[in-house]
Amino acid sequence: MAASNGAKQYDAEKPASPEEDGLNFRAIGCSIRGVSSAVWLLLAATELSFWHIQTSGPAKEAVEAAVGRFEQRHPGVTVKATPYENDAFKLKLRAAMGADEPPDVFHTWGGGPLKTLVDAGKVLDLTGRFEASWRSTIVESVLSFCIFDGKVYAVPADIGVALFWYNTKIFEANGLKPPANYSEFMDVVKKLKAGGVIPISLGMKDAWPGAFYFVYLSNRLGGSGPFVNAAEGRGSFEAPCFVEAGRKVAELAALDVFPRDFLSIGYDESRKLFFEEKAAMILMGTWIIAHARKEKPEFLEKMDCFPFPVVEGGEGDPSVVVGGTNTAYAIASTCKHIDLAVELVKELTSEEFAAEWVKKAGRIPAIKGAVKEDEVPPQTFKAFQILSSASAIQLYYDQYLPPELGERHKETTKLLFARRMTPEDAAARMEATAKEIRSRQSRRAADTAAERSAGPRPVEPEPETTRSVSFWLLTVAVLAALILLIKTILKRNGPTEHP
Amino acid sequence: MGRQSILRPWAFLALAAAVYFVFAVFPIAQSFLYSLYDWDLISPEKQQFVGLENYDRILAGSEAAVFWLSLWHNIILLVLSLVIQLPIAFVLALILTAGIYWKGLFRTLYFAPMMMSTVAVGLLWKNIYGYDYGLLNELLRAVGVGKLAYPWLAGDATVALLAIVGTVSWRFIGFHTVILMAGLESIPRELYEAARVDGATGWQAVQYITLPLMRTPLVICATLSIIGALKYFDIVWVMTRGDAPYPHATDLTATYLYKVAFDTYRGGLGSAIAVALFVITMGVSILFLRGFGKKR
User: Fold this and answer.
1) I want to staple A89 with a disulfide (CB 3.0 to 4.6 A). Which of A84, A171, A229, B131 is the partner?
2) A261 vs B41, B154, B241: nearest CB
3) B244 CB within 8 Å of a chain A CB
4) Average pLDDT in the B249-269 region?
């Protein structure tokens, strides 16, 4: 206000009188304050928050190098990069999304969980800013995991595929070679068990390593169609390929070829068993290469891989690999510096990043042309070859499905491995959960539609649950509370008895 | 007298009351409210009022089997905690207050497990119980009974639960010991001398002097044990997530709640479980205190 006064009253033509000098200083003071606050606003404003999951090792270095390059190319902009451990990250992101204070740029695995955020309006639609020149550098098959309704919501930086990694020395010692089909695989496994070593390392504390088996088996048996149909409500999770896959899983579990406590150990212990040569094989994603390089580099020379074998009698394409993008980056819809955020994502998915990702961490980037045989670890190149000849990448089911159904899938799979559920029951449970989710979603949609149109509420079909139980319980509780209250009041105000 | 002295206490309490209200009362009330909705935890505007449906589901509907199973596990933990922790703690307290030399050292040693972070305790014991690299099995193999080596957390569900109860007991026995020691030391020595003069044996002294006078500390320990057992989460979560050896095999109500709310994005159902747990815990505590508290 003083500034505008000063500006109004200060006239260049008029000679500066003593009073106007005073006003003049005030004007300058105010404008300095104004300018400095604008500068402060500018400085404070150009900070991007970035959450990712590379907490250690070469993967972390590659990400931080990309961030560094971004900051160099955009002076005045700082990136606050915070790595979180995998499961802690999921929780923190959820909490931040719920509180509407998400990081500007964040890591994602695409698929169902990302779609949940997209449906809640928390993720920025990148389609307009994802130019053709950028798009052409990204591998399309993993990009599809980040596209919903034709719109791009995240850009992948990494491809992870699940393959069988095996110990070449143990195989040699037992006179074995990588199996060409599933029955050969069963033979190999039995021979390894007879040879006194744990045939397959597996840690199912978190269920996803075992889910690989189920996904591969159902895909090899029935192709990719049944799953997509079941997920979208056109088909069913009780389709024969799922039941048969469950049967094969139970069969494998019955052979006792996993570590004795595989139901309670996790990925860390299971890979330790593999690296320390107590187990001969492990079905795991390509990120295990990065872990091997960091934890037991001398084991790498005995480590090779083969694709999941073809299952005889199956209708699925045997070249399909199960995988996903284990690192993609999305931008929150609350981001205030969208252009800068897009530039950061570009840097994180650039060819420079890809070169470091594959050479230092041994992981396959989602950027085309980054994998050259002589520059990358041999295991990475072998995996890359298998990936390149794959006709498609099947996304892990728990990443494709909405979170509730994904959890149910992991739960039923673990029950199958523990042999506490029949394959038919497991399939039925999945289908029942899918149906329930769909009915809840449609009810929610009907509700919001009714609210929007502000018309009369449509009559909702009564849910099948026994409505009466909680209702009666509540009634009894309220009555009991009332009786207690009345008794207490009566005791207080009633005639006091004197001895 | 007058208004000043009535207002003053309230004024001093106001801040504490405000903090308590904001961090304890209000969230509980919010939970009650959320439990009546179908909410996906991240979009406030997509809530849908469903009334008592969530409660129906956990009490008699699709989630009932898991809910009652997890509550059953809580009860097992509760009973075993009382039966294992309190007697052992009492005996230890008796021994320590009987006049051994390094009382302070032993008290610190027994209390040490309480001072460790629960995550550290969970991870430590998870490693001890491991099959291939676990300390327990290695010990058995080292003394030649390798045949007894067992996947403690991954074999039978009951064994896994007992293994977890073992870890929880290891952690809390010291806590109860310290409380009971304080209680024992407040009993005047003259009573024991008088009892000796009257010809009472050691056991009779404990029966007629120690136990009656230790009623309050024992009730305190028992109440803490009960409430703790009903809402226990940390160690079970770190050791098995409630899902080893198979899903929900070692689930407690709190771990089940966490998975429902945060892994499957069902905030309303999770709140319903929380409210149910709250009501149950409150009921049990009130009943217990009524039954065993000051009877006079």
Assistant:
1) A84
2) B154
3) yes
4) 92
pLDDT digits (tens, 9 = 90+) for B71-113: 999 999 999 999 999 999 999 999 898 878 888 898 899 999 9
Kind and range of the H or E run holding A435 = helix A423-453
- Report CA A34 to chain centroid distance, whole Å: 45
Question: What 3-state DSSP class applies to B127?
Answer: helix
- Contact: A91, B262; criterion CB under 8 Å: yes
pLDDT tens, position by position, B151-183: 999 989 999 999 999 999 999 999 999 999 999
Q: Which residues 6+ apart lie within 8 Å of A155 measured at CB?
A: A126, A130, A134, A138, A143, A146, A328, A329, A330, A345, A348, A349
Q: Look at residue A15 in the predicted model and tell me its pLDDT.
A: 43
B188 contact A CB<8A: no
CA distance A256 to A273: 16
Please give the pLDDT value at position B263. 87
Give CA–CA dist B127/B137, Å, rounded: 10
A418 CB-contact burial (10 Å; exposed 0-12 / middle 13-18 / buried 19+): buried
CA dist., res. B47 & res. B43, Å (int) = 8
Structure tokens at B109: 């040693």
**What angle, rounded to 10 degrees, do the helices at A240-254 and A225-232 form?**
110
Determine the Cα–Cα distance for residues B37 and B35; give it in Å rounded to an integer: 5
SS3 of A380, please? helix
> What is the rounded distance in angstroms from the CA atom of residue B161 to the CA atom of residue A163?
35
Contact yes or no for A473 and B131 at CB 8 A: no
Residue A177 to residue B175: CA distance in whole angstroms: 57
Touching B: A residues 455-494, CB under 8 Å: 463, 465-467, 469-471, 473-474
ipTM of the complex: 0.86
Q: Cβ(A371)–Cβ(A358) under 8 Å?
A: yes
**Within the 10-69 window of chain B, which residues sit less than 8 Å (CB to CB) from chain A?**
38, 40-44, 46, 48, 52-53, 55-57, 59-62
CA nearest B33: which of B196, B274, B283, B221? B274
